[in-house]
Write a structure and sequence with these properties.
Oligomer: single chain
CATH architecture of the largest domain: 3-Layer(aba) Sandwich
CATH superfamily of the largest domain: Nitrogenase molybdenum iron protein domain
Shape: globular
Number of strands: 14
Radius of gyration: 26 Å
Distance between the termini: 81 Å
Strand order of the largest sheet: 1-11-10-9-12-13
Number of helices: 17
Structural class: alpha/beta
């Protein structure tokens, strides 16, 4: 079932594997021109452009009056959701909030031996915009995406948070999205999607005030718009297709591993799924399980293509070598399906999230346990990390020095400025000594 099989014995085998992985990492620039055109139109025409695009792609009868969801619509959504489902969403939100509450940075202040007052003041961004994908015409509401993006922003202290999400053909939103927003205390929601929604968040329109930070997943148009806006507004990350790597020994169950790999493969035909093991029988048994489980999977077409194009099994001589390979791949999700996974945890250097043991499947992290599921993909876990409270915070450096400090250090500061041929910098310090 896996499209590729590899043997990895040492670093000498990595170039061949890397060349295959790199093919999946090639950026899709085919839509960049269209996205630039959309963004330009939104920046010039504002709401008019938003309505025009929404009518063309999402809802033919859409008008500017439909743009913002009313408080009554948000509150009424609770009546459309089973009570048990609301309780599950509340519990997931509580666990996610509890986890993220430990991430917030604190301001700090100190004085150095020469009397300078130094510090770092942590403040939240003023306003954040959260993108929630429509999900097959609104039929697959991405509740978890809203929870994972909104809660870190709230814990960070962001006072103004808005949501943008594309409308269904009948000018409504899925009640699960509205109900989740209500449970989170969010009431600024706009029926607007794709690249034009991202542009509206960045530039602002008459209906949608501009934001300082944009977070949330989306299709290639959303991702490209976010990429083009980097440097103009805060962006959470540029995420690629989902991926899961499993390091397994002979204690692992083939049916468990196959189910976990399919949980990622069903996302997208570009999803990456990798099994790394020293057990040849396990590789064969997992392959058979994948075929069996695909027979009853609703999204079998997606999963089958992902497995054939970007699924790989890797035979390694031992778990230490397997861990070396995992760190080179730097997967978004990484499952340690070992009889005793804990000693191996310290050897993990590059991964978005780690799941330890046979009873910690990746979807537990996607929905419920608490850690964020917005994670670095395509090898970027080598230098980046999960979305967190810190994405919605910024640090301001604080400095206060008195006349005595200047008398002691002005000559050194001025000399350093003149080393760089910046005379005005030197004079800015020296002028404060002339009156003494």
């Amino acid at each position: 079932m896996f499209g590729r099989q590899f043997i990895y014995s040492s670093a000498h085998d990595w170039p061949h594997i890397k060349s295959w992985l790199t093919l999946r990492m090639q950026p899709d620039t085919s839509v960049e021109g269209k996205v630039r055109e959309v963004m330009d139109k939104v920046s010039r025409r504002g709401d008019e452009a938003l309505v025009e695009y929404t009518r063309h792609f999402d809802c033919r009868e859409f008008s500017i009056q439909d743009m913002q969801v009313t408080a009554a619509e948000i509150e009424n959504s609770l009546l459309q959701i089973p009570v048990d489902d609301l309780d599950i969403i509340r519990e997931a939100a509580f666990k996610i909030r509890t986890f993220h509450s430990r991430q917030a940075r604190n301001s700090w202040f100190t004085t150095d031996p020469d009397g300078a007052f130094l510090g770092q003041m942590t403040t939240p961004v003023s306003r954040a915009g959260l993108y929630v994908p429509g999900g097959q015409g609104g039929d697959t509401p991405l509740i978890s995406s809203l929870l994972m993006n909104a809660i870190p922003a709230q814990v960070a202290g962001v006072e103004s948070i808005c949501i943008v999400t594309p409308p269904r053909a009948d000018r409504t939103l899925n009640p699960y999205i509205l109900a989740t927003a209500h449970l989170l205390g969010l009431d600024e929601i706009y029926e607007c999607g794709s690249a034009w929604a991202v542009a509206a968040l960045a530039y602002g329109t008459a209906s949608i005030p501009a934001v300082d930070m944009i977070a949330g997943p989306g299709n290639i148009f959303v991702t490209t718009a976010k990429k083009l806006l980097m440097g103009q507004v805060g962006i959470d990350m540029i995420a690629g297709p989902s991926e899961l790597a499993v390091l397994a020994d002979s204690s692992a169950r083939p049916d468990y591993i196959a189910a976990d790999l399919l949980s990622q493969a069903e996302h997208d035909p570009l999803a990456g799924t990798y099994l790394v093991t020293d057990d040849a029988d396990l590789m064969e048994n997992v392959d058979n399980e994948l075929e069996n489980q695909l027979l009853s999977l609703p999204r079998a077409d997606n999963a089958c293509k992902a497995l054939k194009d970007w699924g790989g099994s890797f035979k390694v001589p031992d778990m230490q070598t397997g861990m070396e390979l995992i760190n080179r791949i730097a997967p978004e999700h990484f499952e340690l399906c070992l009889q005793d996974p804990w000693p191996m945890l310290a050897k993990v250097k590059n991964a978005g999230a780690v799941f330890l043991g046979h009873t910690s499947p990746e979807p537990v992290g996607d929905y419920f346990a608490g850690p964020n599921h917005v994670l670095p993909t395509l090898g970027t876990a080598r230098f980046s990390q999960a979305l967190s409270v810190q994405n919605f915070q910024k640090s301001i450096s604080i400095l206060a020095t008195d006349q005595g400090y200047l008398q002691q250090h002005a000559s050194s500061i001025a000399r350093m400025a003149r080393m760089e041929n910046l005379e005005a910098h030197a004079r800015s310090v020296e002028i404060r000594l002339k009156g003494e």
